[in-house]
Every structure is written in C-alpha cells, then in structure tokens.
Amino acid sequence: MAVKKLRTGLYPGTFDPMTNGHIDIIRRSLALVDHLVIAMGINASKAPLLTFDERVALIEAEIGPMAKKLGAKISTTSFSGLVVDAADAHDATVIIRGLRGSVDYEYEAQMVGMNRTMNPKVETVFLSASPETQFISSTLVRQIASMGGDISQFVPKRVEKKIFNALTKLKKS
After folding, report:
1. Model-level pTM greater than 0.85?
2. pLDDT digit string, tens, across residues 84-103
3. Which CATH number do you get for residue 58?
4. Catalytic residues
C-alpha cells in the first residue's frame, strides 16, 4: 500500500509582530496543506522588535491549537537565504503568500517568475487578505505601538502584551 505524502507548504515572513492578517492567511493555508512551515526570514541588516524565540513562542501559542483542531501540523523555522531554498530544505512544494492589494501583487508576481526559474518543483499560491485584515501590516503595528497607540484590533492579546513589553525594555536601555 502506498503511503500518502504530506502536502507541505512554506509561509515566509518576518512576523515581527504576527498580526491578525498573518493568522487569517495561516488559518486558510491549513485547509490547503497538511503541514505548514512558518519560516521567519533573518536579515542581518534589520533589528526586529521581538526576538526569534519570542516570535516562535507567539506563533506556536496562537496557531498550535488552531492547527490541531484542523488536523494539520505546523512548525517554525528561520531562514536567511532564498525562499525557494528554504522550501526545498523543508520538502515544501508550495510557498504561501498573502496579498493585501495590487502593490503586493506586482512585487509577488515578479518573485513567482524568479522562484519558478530557480526551482520549478515549488509552486506559489496567493491568498488575498480578508477585507477586515487587508490594511494591517507589521510595520504599521510597530509604529502605532511605539507611539503609544492602541493595536488591540490588529494583533492577538498576547502579541500586544509582548510588543509593549519589548518597547518598554527599549525605552529603559
């Protein structure tokens, strides 16, 4: 009897912080794949607000129960090179990309062509952001939080708490 191969997808991003928009894309991705690898890009020239370990813990706390309920598996990892190489390293045949609008599409469409040329075994799937989350970006969430604004509508409660704790530490140092 043949063993069914798991459909593995890779969802790359910085997740600094993970927003309700990320959660929406992840939830919908879990209906498409058996195993979703949430891959955090590491860029030496950028200093994230939250540490890698903090982001992993938040993702696992928020997404783990959802994945279990849906009968899917999630894992988290980091990568510093090409997304297609990260997909290969995790046996992912699908790269999941969330699109907030036409500006995202233009950039992502170019990336699909480049990625397909470098690794034709990996397909890219675009998921349009839900209307209630399409305006949310991690950058804007960090900016609003750094100015003392209310971010509760854009991130889960534990993410909000972690962001404000990180900002308080930064102000003290």
Report:
1. yes
2. 999 999 999 999 999 988 87
3. 3.40.50.620
4. 22, 46, 100, 138
